[in-house]
């Protein structure tokens, strides 16, 4: 399980190991952007139940994205480490990265990585 940071900022995906999937921080009620509604909900001195409602309903307008995202466990996808399995200098210089075998053998040099994880392991052959 990956712990989320609660210091007022949500972690970036690059701060986590592997690829993660978190929901976007969006408001779930059209009234969230209304000044009177924001004043009522986004008050830092609001009752705990009101603040909980604001976090769940208007996280973007109330600037509660970190708290909102802390309520989710990100889906963590890991894979094999992204690395070249051979010296790929000549293959990359020859624009061979579109060949599936080269893409697999030269994953790092052919930009097949995300945060150090191989995106799609392709069969060799």
Automatic annotation (TrEMBL):
Q: Does the keyword Disulfide bond apply?
A: yes
**A Pfam family that the UniProt record links to this protein:** ShK
User: What are the ShKT domain coordinates in residue numbering?
Assistant: 82-113
What are the entry keywords?
Answer: Disulfide bond
- Specify the superkingdom: Eukaryota
SS bond partners: 88-106, 97-110
InterPro entries referenced in this protein's UniProt entry, alphabetically: ShKT_dom
Keyword Protein transport (UniProt): no
The name of this protein is ShKT domain-containing protein
Which organism was this protein described from? Mytilus galloprovincialis
